Give the backbone structure.
Amino acid sequence: MTTTTNMSTTPSMSTNMPSIPGLRLPRPSVRDLVPYEATEPTAAIMLSANEAPETLPDEVLRELKAGLSDFAWRKYPDPLARQLRALIAEANGLEDEQVLLGNGGDELILDLFLAWGGKDRCFLNLPPTFSLYEIYAHTTETRTVALPRDRETFAVAVDATAARLSAGDIDLCIVANPNNPSGNMSAEDELQRLLETSNALICVDEAYFEFSRRTMRPWLDRYPNLAILRTFSKAFSLAGLRLGYILASPEVIATLAKVRMPYSVNAFSQWVGRVAYAHANLFEPRIRAIVEQRDWLYTQLDAIPTVEVWPSEANYLLFRTTNAHRVAQRLLQDYDICIRDFSRAAYLTDCLRVTVGTPAQNEAFLQALRSIV
Ligand code: PMP
């Protein structure tokens, strides 16, 4: 097991479980685990979690309000969320059996580890990336092999990754595309190369696909070892609902269905997901606005001499500045603005990540940052 790349905001928090008389200790691999992102501070302007800046469109809210009293609260949900699954399958030109809904993308990532990871199994991680991958590797006692991305560009080291995959012992690899927190993407042909190099299950995590508008979907028919992860949490303004989905071959989906919690996607989430997805067109102008704001924010950050910012294809920007930890603290204390502090995380020294908010929020953030740095 490699050491856990801790990207939580509270890296120094000790979670070693003390021995308590009368209580048996949990599994050794759980004892020293650091939980994912302990609660963040609340601030007037929250730009830390890559959430959408606006709530659901009025039309969606109206439809939900109108349907509330007839909603089948007392009934168990359909375990496979078949109605929503059919909508997603149709929109992606796939069979229903190629889609699996989950309680957020997070649950589906855990399912990947439950099915393809575990004792004597090997996960290939490409840090710095979404920290949950390594946490779930740890909880499922999956051995992690880490191949760091390029220190300057955060590009996947394709040659090294392909070479490592060709050794034949990797069971699962997850490539966040765009990568979180760096915002960059791997090219389609690079991902194809990884898919062709071994039979390891390769999950391309497209949580921010609506902002990048690039997907590996066209390659699902060609590669049986490709799985694509998406979420309703970002572009669909539904992080609070907990809804995500995987697109893959029927065999991969059937395998994940074996390990998942049968009722993890509750009936309310299924219904809200259906209403939102059926109105996907209403989210388009919002997505365009975020992309425009992101590119504007990039230019503005790039113009600050003490800031180094990376181009992003998602709804956030990673930047580096001296004394980053102090900068994040001052943004919070003096300006009531919360962004994500990665300054002490591995590979991300002095890096901070800001989520693209409303134009007013972005302006307030920039002004505050300019006066601090
Ligand atoms: N993948 C990536 C890269 C993410 O950044 C996130 C959210 N932080 C997820 C997956 C999971 O999102 P959710 O569980 O909200 O669907």
